[in-house]
Amino acid sequence: MLNRIKGVWLFALMALITHSALASESFEHSILQGQVEHADLTHLRQYRNFQFDLMYWVANLDKNAQTNNFCLVGYRWPDKSIEAVVSWKEESSLKIWSGRHTPPDEYGDGASDLMMTKGIDLEHNVVDREDQMGMSTYLRRDVEGTLKDCARHGIQYELKPFTPPPEKSEDDW
Asked: Can you spell out the DSSP letters for the chain?
């Protein structure tokens, strides 16, 4: 009887350990630290209509006459906070974005804070090292890990060429 109880207890313990290991995703190589799982950005208010933020970013850099490709992947931390990594293929750029407090309902509803978020120039801010340099650089393995994660779990978004609407005057508000 005692062996049977030990067996059941051991089985329950192994099931608990296995469940805990599966509940937390592994993010070994990432430009971010401490995230515990992916977040589905399509169901989060602060990322609603993210395409308008991408359009604003593209138009601000006068790249709206070409097709632009983006990948957005969301991450959640133990405190339930969420961040997204936005990859812009044509500009070899990554941004870490918290989303908007008030998502736009149309293009041009205010400047995008995506423009002001921290960016990583993948051609100049990435180094081939095993340890951080303590400057504005990122390890290639972490950047590549993040890009692979975005390709696997992120939202792929193609922005076709567009003409931005004219700026609103003060009379339009």
From this structure: -HHHHHHHHHHHHHHHHHHHHHHS---SS-SS-S--EEE-GGG-GGGTTHHHHHHHHHHHTT-TTS-EEEEEEEEE-TTS-EEEEEEETTTTEEEEE---SS--SSTTSS--GGGGS-EEETTTSEE--SS--SSS-EEHHHHHHHHHHHHHHSEEEEE----PPPPPPGGG-
Q: Mark 77-107 as b/e (b = at least 16 C-beta within 10 Å).
A: eeeeebbbbbbbeebebbbbbebbeebbeeb
The answer to whether 74 touches 47, Cβ cutoff 8 Å, is: yes
Q: Is the pTM value of this prediction over 0.70?
A: yes
Nearest to 112 by CA among 167, 32, 73, 58: 58
38 and 25 Cβ atoms separated by less than 8 Å = yes
127-152 tens-digit pLDDT:
887 666 566 678 999 999 999 999 99
